[in-house]
Batch of 3 targets.
Target 1
Amino acid sequence: SRSQEIIYDMPGAYFAWFADTYMNALKNIVPSLIEGWKRRGWKEGIHFVTDKAPPDSWKKPYRSPLSYKHTISLPNGCFFNTVSADQISSAAGNSYQHVFADEVKNIAQKEYKKLSPAIRGGKEIFSHSPFFQGRTLTTDMPIIGDNENDWVLDYEKQMDPIQIEKIIQLGFVLNEIKADIYKAVQKNATPSELNLLQKNYTRWLLRWTKARYNSTLFYIATSFVNADYLGLDWFKDQLADGIEDFKTSILSLKSSIKKGEKFYTHLGEHHFYKDGNLQSYQDRFMIYDDIKFTSEMLKYVKRDKPLEIGIDFGDMTSMVVGQTQGNYLYVLKNFWVLAPGSSKELVESFTDYFSTHKTKYIEMYYDRAGNQYSQIKRDWASEIAGFLKDKGWTVQLMSRNQATIYQEEEYRFMQGFLGEYDKNIPKIRIDNFNCMQLKSSLELSKTKVSVNKKGQRTIEKDKSSERLPLEKRPMYSTNFSDAFKYLVCRYEWMNILKKRKTTWSTPQTY
C-alpha cells in the first residue's frame, strides 16, 4: 500500500527494489510485492508490466531506461529497477527518487551506502513530494552479533517525535474534513458548500504535506498487534520455545551478544565475501521464471577440482561445502535437512545443486558420531557416502576413528585459524549469501564455562540453541557451526597450531 501511495504521488519516477541478493529479489521480494498489488486489485497488463517495455499508450519515465529486464513499468510512467547488495553494479548509472528494501538485516550497511549516491535526480519534477529521495526500509528485529546488520536501528535517532506528532495531528484534521465532504455529498449539499469544504481540504492538505518533508518515522511493532487474530494459545506456544527467542521474534526487543561471550572471537567481516554470485547466470531468468539455484551461479567454484564437505548429524543434519584453492579455503554453500527428512534428501539437494560439477570427488569430514551410530546399525557417514556414490560421486571419508575434537580444543584452534596466525594454514572465506545460515550460526555461538571431572574450568560452546524448534535451528542454532568445525578442524592444521602430533587413521574411500 505504501508503494502504491508513492507511485501515485510521483508519476514518472524511478524506484529501486533493493535486496541482499539478486536471486532473492527475483525469486522472493519482487514477486511478493506484485502479489500484494494483486490482492489490492491491480492486474498485470493493466496496472503494470514486467520484464518488457510498456505499451506505447502509457506515459514514460522522466528518463528512458537502458533495459527493461528485471523491471516493472506502470501506466503513469513510474519505473522499478531491481538492485542487490551482491550485484551493486546493477544500480550503476541510474538515479532513483525512492528506494524500497525489505529484510534489511540481511544487507550490510556499507553495501546500502553504495546505493545512497544513486538516490538523486529529478528535483525539478518530483520535489513536490515528501517521498522524494526517501527510503522505505523494513525488517525483522536483527539478532545482533559482530557482523549482524542492525544499522537500520540507527534511524531511530533521526526521528523527531514532535514533528511526527504534528504530522499525525494534521492527518486527523484531514480525515475529519474528508468525513465532512462525504456527509455533505450524502445530504446533497450545494456546489458552493462543497467548494468551501474542498478549499478547506486543500489548505490542510498543503499543511500536512509540508510537515512531512524531511521527516523520519521509525516504528517497532510486536506480534501483539495481531493478538486478536493469533489468540493467546499461539503466544503461549511461542514462549515455550524460550524467552530469548520470544523477546526478539515476538516482542521485537533488541538482542545482543557481547564480544567476550562469543565462541568465535576472531570471526570478522573479512572472512565473508559478497560477490560470489555471477550476474551472467542471474540474467538468464525473468521475474516470473521458476529460478533454479545451481553451482553454475558461483563465482569462486573450480568445477574441475574436488569438493570438501563438513557434516554434523542429528535431527537437523547440516552440511557445508568448501574447496581449497591455494592459500584459501572457500566455503561455497550450505545445506540442511530437518527430521523427519532423510539423508537421501540432503544428498539430493547437494547433487542437484552441483549437478554440473565436473570432478565428482568429495573429501568428507564429519562428527565421529557418524561412525559410532554404526553400533545401532545406523552409520550416517557411510549412508550419506552410499547415496552420493549412487549419484555418481566418489567419497573419501576423512574422519574414520579420529579422536574427539573437544570444544575447548575447537575454541583455541579457531582463535589461531580465524586469526590467520600461520601461513601454512589456508585462510577461510565464506560466501555471505549462499552460506547465510552458517554465517548466522557462527556469529551467534556463545561460550560457557564448565567444570570437568578433574575440577578444572573449561571453555565450551553453549549448545542450548539446539533445543530450539526445528524450523528455527538453521538460522539460530549452533548446528551449522559444528558442521563448519568438522570441515576445518583437520588433524594436519590442528597439529600446526598445537605444535604436536596426533594419531589419525587412514581415510576410507567409497
Target 2
Amino acid sequence: MRTKVTLVLVFLNVALFFFIFYLRPLWLTQDQLREARSKVLPATAADIQAIEIASGAQTTRLVKRGEIWHLSQPIDWPANPHAISRILSELQFLTHETAFDVASLAQNKLSLADYGLDKPALSVTLTPGMPRGDAEGQPAERITLRIGNPTDVGNRLYVLSPDGQRIHVVARSFAESLTLPLEQLRSPALFTIPEFEIRSFNLQIAAPANLRVHVRREAGRWFFETPVVARADTAAVKQAITLLSTLKVGTFLSQPPPPELNPSTTPVFRITLGGNNRSETLLIGGAVPPASDAAPAAGQDASYFAQIDGKATVFTLALSANLMETLRDAQDKLRETKILEMDTNRVTSIVLRAPNQAEITLQRLESTATDGAAQWQIVRRGG
C-alpha cells in the first residue's frame, strides 16, 4: 500500500514539474504574443516626450521638460498631472478589439472615407524619446494616430495605425482622454513648489519707493532680512504663503493688457517663493477695469492682471482684500510684535525689581486644580 502511495506522489511531482517548466512558459509566451499583437502603438511609445493633439482647427501641444509636463500650445503653462497620467495610460495600454487591413477595403468597395479616416477630425502625434543603445543618438520617428468615426455597434472608434496599413477598433475612452478641455489639461495652481518646501518669501512693492521685503525660514521659524533684521510672525507668514499657494487662474488673455496695467512692464507686486534649489516668481500688474463705470469699493476683492516670470502668458487673478492688505503692508503685517519670545506655560517665576523698592518674586505652584489653571504665590524678602 505504501509503495502505491509513493509511486502516485512521484508521478504527481513529475507532472507538476513538467507543467511548471514546459507548459506554463509556453502559455505565458502565447499570452504575451497575443497581447503584443493587439497593441496599437509600437514599443517606442513607452517613453513619450511630447504629445500633439489636433482637433479641427485647434492644436494642443504637451511637452515633457525633465520630469514635469507642460503645455506649450495654445498657452505656456504647467500641465495637470492627473490629466497627463490619464492620457499616457490610455496611449501606452491602447489595444484593439479587432483589426483589419486597409488593402482589403477595395474588395468590399469601401475606403478610408467610410470610416472617417481620410480627413480625421481628431489626430494625435507622439514624439518618443531617444531609443536606448542608439549609437548615433538619433531620436525615434514620430508616431501619428488618426481617429475616425464611432462604430455602429458598441462604444468603439476606428483608428488608423501609424503606418497606415491597418484599421483598429478601440475603446472610445481613448478619444475622450484626448479631448479634455483646456481648463482640465492645465494645472490649476500658480506655484508648483509645495508649501513644506518653501524656504524664502521675497516681495517687491512698486510703491512706495520700490520697497523690498525678504523673509527666510530657519529651523522652522521665519526671520526678516530686509528691510530690517527682525523676527517675523511665523503664523502670519505661513498664512500669507498658504493664501498665495491656493491662488487660481481666472482667465487667460489672448491680447496683452495696456502697458500701464501689464504685469511684465509695470508690476505692482513681484512675489518670489524659493524652495530647494528652485524659485518661482509671480508678477501682479494693475487691476482689471470693472465692467461698469463704478470703481470697486475699498476693502472689496478685485481681479488683477498677472503673469509668471519667464512666461509670456498673461491671465487674470482674483485677490482678496485681506491678502492685498498683507502684501501692501508686509513689513508691518508679517513682523513679530511681541517683545519677548517665550512660552508662558513654561514660566515658573517672575522677579520684579525697582529702585528703592523691595524685590518681589511671583512663584508658580504645582497645579492641583482639575481645570489645569496655575496657582501663584508672592514671595517678598527683606521686609
Target 3
Amino acid sequence: MEETRKRWQHSIRTGTEFETEHRLQDRDGGYKWHLSRGIAQKDAYDKQTLWISTNTVIHEQKAHQEALEKAVAERTHELQQANETLKHKNKELESFTYVSSHDLQEPLRKIQTLAGRIFDKEHQNLTDSGKDYFGRIQKAAGQMQQLILDLLAFSQVSTEERTFKNTDLSRLAQEVISELSETIAEKHATIDATGLGTAPVIVFQFRQLLHNLMGNALKFSHPDVPPISL
C-alpha cells in the first residue's frame, strides 16, 4: 500500500503516467493481483484536468509467472548440482590421466624391455614359432602403449579442442586389421578395406570405431560360415 501511495502521489505531482502492480482485496476477503494504470488529461496550459485509469486483474498471469520463476530456480539448482558432479568427474578424469601416464605404462615398459632382452639374448635358442610369439608380444605391447597414449591425449582435451585430421582411412583400417589378425585367422575371415579414401576424422576415435565394428562382426559371426567384409 505504501509503495502504491508513493507512486500515485508522484504521478499527481509530476503528471507522469501511473502504473503499478499490487494486490487488492476482493469481496470474499481474498487478495488478487491487479495492474493499475492512469494517464492525466491536461488542458492547453498543461494543467491536469482529470485522470483516466484502468484496473486489470492479472492474478493468473502472476501465478504463471511465479510458477515459471520457481521452475527456472529449480532447474538452475539442478544445473548447479550437475556442474558440481561434472567437476567431480573431471577430478576423476585427472586421476585417470595420472594412472594412464604412470601406473599403466610402467609395467608395459617392463614387458617390452624383458621381451626384447629375451628375444635378443635367446634368439638362437628360440624356435621359429617362439620367435613369432615374441614378435607378437612386442607388437601387441606397442599397440597397447599407443592406445594408452591415445587415451591420455583424449582425456586432456575438451570437445572444442578435438581436432579433425585428414586421414587415409584404408591405412587406419589396415592397422586395426593387424591388431585383430589372430581373431581373423581363427575365424577364417576376409576383410577388404582398400579404396576407402581419406576423410577428416579424430584419429583415435575413428580407430576405436573401426576396431569395435570389426571386433563385433568377428565375434558374432556364424561359427560355420567364414565372414567376409568388403
